[in-house]
Design brief:
The protein is α+β, with helices and mostly antiparallel strands and about 750 residues long. Among the domains are: about 150 residues, no CATH class; about 180 residues, no CATH class; about 110 residues, no CATH class. The chain contains 23 helices and 23 strands. The strands form three sheets. Strands 1, 2, 5, 6, 7, 8, 9, 10, 11, 12 and 13 form an eleven-stranded mixed β-sheet that branches. Strands 14, 15, 16, 17, 18, 19, 20, 21, 22 and 23 form a ten-stranded mixed β-sheet that branches. Strand 19 and strand 20 form a beta hairpin. Helix 8 crosses helix 11, helix 10 packs across helix 13 and helix 22 crosses helix 23. The longest helix has 18 residues.
Length: about 750
């Protein structure tokens, strides 16, 4: 499709969207507030002046001494609900940035039912600290700090304030030529050099975004194709909203979509791969914002439009196609499905709106790859959107001697302490994807992005029912205790389990697995390595075969979505590709052939060329997607009894396969000492034991001990809580408590930037 035709297509997609309202930043006098709220004018329900006056009359604001702000940009914050907002003075793009800070309060709350169309509107303004009856309207800014280099400046209250280049670009693009606008910007509105102030401001983040008139999500300056990509996202939902099945790329044009080789797809991928989408803090910024707009240069769309577009792109399989074709581009650097972030954020936003916020551990799993400046913020940055029980159990500390490792261990202990059953144990242990010397082997290291995809736990919906059932019990018995902690040593976790087998052979690590039907004898390196390793087996434990073990292990028994068991058509595609790679038929003992594989050539026989399109092509792409997810950064292993499966990157000969009570996944463990204490290596997939084959009704699960990771790492070096998980709080050393009985959230100093 030519560039002109692509533009015509985008114009046609835009046709259903008429009279799109402009995105207006807040003004100090509230001139834009009524339009933003979708009404003709502010009435007493939106701005109940009498209620505000009554509320203000009950408040007494401490007055700072005149010496407190002498010769300084920042006037002290004296009230627990006080924040600053920045009035950005008018100016052209190239003119010097100028602004002034205003102090206001986000304490006042008043939900208002506007009308049947608009619905309920929460308080979308702050109140001036100079006069608590005066509303202050502001727009919150969500952006990426970028490199911590402060080489740009803004004149603020007569002082020069140094800022990052990314913020400088955002402000120059967002400010107006003819009027001032008001924004809340963490880098300027919080005194980043004042630890006590940051301690007070961090817990206000949720209120700051909820009280904002709207939120500007600045994802950066325009780039080639970014404007077209924004327009595409704005309107693609209209075209795809009734599509529920995967779309074959060959059908794109028939469905009035750009051709697969159109530049718009690369532009779309690059836009969704921008650094903003990798930030941890965007999770609460998006979820808590009432009216968020995504801004790229001069283009903008609503967050809802972006989310709906990504949901539909995922539903019809285009997001997976984008990942397979563009994830190795320079911009994305091997990122996963970029649409899934928006899908997950939108689901979390809906959950928070319906007062059913997720637990903190589930959010940690979902946000595993999100980035932040301080590793402790992997937890602290989610407190505004997790369940109240979890957020109230956390006392946040940025003390230099309180490490991220200590915090992560406390998190795991707290989560497991909320219930001693296998569902929780599975979620925690399948989150381990590391070899970190400063953590017990069973504690997930949230500092590190996953190198693999969890086999036994969905990363998008943690806690969802698994397709595996290695322990043979779909539902753990009520009140049954599947694990305990060592009362004297919190580094030890004591689950119960049964020994299955020992690893006797391992393959090389599969770093970048892929599958193709083009020149399979030379291009299918992963498939050939699988074949060469598994072909060492002449037979397989009954009733299974070597070939069934081969093709199931290639996809870890899952379909392309990762949520269902792999369908039988997978065997047909893999059988076809395997013989094409080996030039043998059959290639493995027990290999199966479908009816259409056995037809004469030219008379309906399934051939490699059929994998380019239609149903065989869709099945091939699902096999490819499932294989890439299952195999990446894992090894194959053969056990002493002749089983084969996928084992963790750090697995080696001598490691043992165990099934833990209550866990639907088997795990690879390594003996540490003569009393058979173990180090957890990770989850594994072993074909032939995944449906409870080794777990008989009368089998005795024995207690085992999981402890520290690397040899030589002493138990004293990892920080743990006291016996009841509570820690003493010293005047200058606030440490976190993970306890069901904690009622207060105490914050200490810490940066909130990425």
């Amino acid at each position: 499709m030519s560039g002109n035709n692509t533009n015509l297509l985008l114009d046609s997609l835009a046709a259903p969207i008429l009279d799109r309202p402009q995105f207006e930043l807040a003004q100090i006098d509230g001139a834009t507030s009524a339009r933003t709220l979708g009404v003709d004018r502010l009435n007493d329900r939106l701005l109940p002046e009498n209620k505000i006056r009554i509320w203000a009359s009950t408040k007494k604001i401490p007055v700072p001494t005149k010496s407190d702000d002498k010769g300084r940009l920042y006037r002290p914050i004296v009230d627990p609900h006080e924040i600053r907002v920045l009035e950005i003075k008018s100016g052209a793009y190239s003119e010097k940035l100028r602004g002034s800070l205003h102090h206001c309060s986000v304490e006042y709350e008043n939900e208002t039912v506007v009308n049947a169309f608009v619905g309920t509107v929460p308080t979308r303004y702050a109140l001036s600290m100079d006069d608590l009856t005066t509303p202050v309207w502001y727009t919150a800014l969500s952006y990426t700090w970028g490199a911590p280099v402060f080489d740009r400046d803004i004149e603020c209250n007569g002082y020069e304030k140094m800022i990052t280049a990314s913020l400088d670009a955002a402000l120059r693009n967002l400010r107006k030529k003819d009027r001032s606008v008001v924004m809340w910007i963490d880098q300027i509105c919080i005194d980043q050099e004042n630890n006590e102030e940051k301690q007070q401001q961090i817990p206000l983040m949720a209120k700051i975004y909820r009280h904002a008139l709207n939120t500007a999500i600045w994802i950066g300056d325009p780039s080639p194709g970014s404007d077209s990509a924004m327009r595409f996202l704005e309107n693609i939902y209209v075209r795809l909203q009734f599509i529920e099945n995967d779309i074959d790329p060959a059908d794109f044009e028939r469905m009035s979509l750009p051709k697969p080789d159109s530049e718009i797809w690369q532009a779309l991928w690059d836009l969704l791969s921008r650094p903003w989408f990798t930030r941890l803090w965007i999770i609460q910024e998006v979820i808590l914002s009432e009216d968020a707009r995504v801004v790229c240069g001069d283009s903008f769309i609503t967050w809802d439009q972006l989310a709906l577009a990504c949901i539909q792109l995922s539903t019809c399989g285009i997001s997976r196609w984008l990942q397979l074709n563009f994830s190795d581009s320079a911009v994305s650097s091997g990122r996963g499905d970029v649409c899934q972030l928006a899908v997950q954020l939108d689901a979390m936003k809906m959950a928070c709106t319906s007062n059913s916020a997720r637990d903190l551990f589930s959010l940690l799993i979902i946000s595993r790859n999100a980035q932040c400046y301080d590793s402790r913020d992997k937890i602290y940055g989610l407190l505004g959107v997790c369940s109240k029980r979890d957020s109230s159990a956390v006392r946040t500390s940025y003390a230099p001697d309180f490490t991220a490792a200590q915090l992560y261990q406390d998190m795991a202990v707290y989560y497991l302490s909320t219930g001693s059953h296998g569902g929780l144990l599975t979620i925690v242990l399948t989150s381990v994807d590391h070899d970190s010397s400063d953590l017990p082997s069973w504690v997930p290291d949230w500092r590190r992005p996953r190198r693999t995809t969890a086999l036994g736990c969905s990363e998008s919906t943690p806690g969802a029912q698994s397709i595996y059932n290695a322990n043979g019990r779909n539902k753990p018995a009520k009140n049954k205790i599947d694990f305990t902690f060592n009362g004297e040593n919190k580094n030890e976790l004591r689950p119960r389990g049964i020994f299955v087998d020992t690893v006797v052979k391992t393959s090389n690590l599969f770093i970048d697995p892929d599958l193709t039907y083009l020149n399979p004898t030379t291009n299918n390196k992963t498939l050939l390595e699988f074949f060469n390793f598994i072909s060492q087996l002449e037979h397989y434990p009954a009733p299974n075969t070597v070939f069934s073990a081969f093709w199931h292990s290639l996809v870890a028994g899952k379909d392309g979505s990762g949520h269902l068991k792999c369908p039988l058509p997978f065997a047909e595609i893999i059988s076809l590709l395997l013989d094409a790679c080996t030039n043998q038929s059959p290639s493995l003992p027990g290999q199966t052939y479908s009816a259409r594989q056995q037809r004469p050539k030219g008379r309906g026989k399934l051939e490699l060329a059929n994998l380019a399109s239609r149903t065989p092509g869709q099945t091939f792409q699902k096999v490819r997607a499932a294989m890439k997810v299952a195999v990446k950064n894992r090894r194959l292993g053969i056990t002493e009894k002749g089983y084969v499966g996928l084992i963790p990157e750090y697995g080696k000969v001598g490691d043992r396969v165990y099934v833990l009570d209550g866990c639907h996944m088997p795990f690879l463990l390594r003996v540490v000492d003569e009393v058979e204490r173990f180090r957890l290596i990770g989850d594994c997939y072993v074909y032939g034991i995944m449906d409870g084959e080794f777990v008989k009704e009368d089998i005795d699960f024995k207690q085992i001990i999981l402890l520290l990771p690397s040899a030589g790492h002493s138990t004293e070096s990892a920080g743990v809580c006291e016996a009841d998980f509570n820690t003493s709080i010293l005047a200058q050393d606030i440490r976190p408590t993970w306890s069901d009985f904690a009622e207060n959230v105490n914050f200490t100093a810490g940066d909130i930037e990425d």
